[in-house]
Amino acid sequence: xxxxxxxxxxxxxxxxxxxxxxxxxxxxxxxxxxxxxxxxxxxxxxxxxxxxxxxxxxxxxxxxxxxxxxxxxxxxxxxxxxxxxxxxxxxxxxxxxxxxxxxxxxxxxxxxxxxxxxxxxxxxxxxxxxxxxxxxxxxxxxxxxxxxxxxxxxxxxxxxxxxxxxxxxxxxxxxxxxxxxxxxxxxxxxxxxxxxxxxxxxxxxxxxxxxxxxxxxxxxxxxxxxxxxxxxxxxxxxxxxxxxxxxxxxxxxxxxxxxxxxxx
Length: 264
Hints:
The protein has 264 residues and is of the alpha/beta class.
């Protein structure tokens, strides 16, 4: 990926990572490719924050991915001086805070480091994402509840999920719900609110950059504790659209725009 012309300027794209090859290609890799196309003067590097996923892929010998520290060492070795960092995290949560700490350890080795925002940071980000959802689910029938599953975090940034749920309702989208797999709003909260609508059909979708393990198992899997199984047990007719946010064109555009802000 490196050339003599742009070796001193780089964009490091930091993702949580995924062991699912199909979703990786249409989400993480698609984001990286659009960033590279938008900023040809920069070399694009990749790092993942999930050491567990990195190790899993290495064990399979399918893909070798740097963690953040390894990527920083690689860029120093390549002579990079001007660094832009773009996380593909959804929120300013634990993963994003840890990423910043790892990057800033190397501050003295670069002439400049600019760390851009994750997906949902400003009100403008939220508005853009709502537009992306409205476009993606323009065909949502009035008799169907669209239920998103976000990851969730014990970090205070988790409040964005409840804020998104409220905003859907405020926009008149009373049949769109936001839940999380590891925090609040949890499944029980979502179930209570869906029941209040009287709707009998549920469409499940991940509110994560990739449609990976959580989407395929916790959300739409056949195990009795998946959201799909639990909704079915309550008598709902359930379907799923396993498309990560990274597949939405407007989401990829938003990451590109965040870099533009960071460069300025």
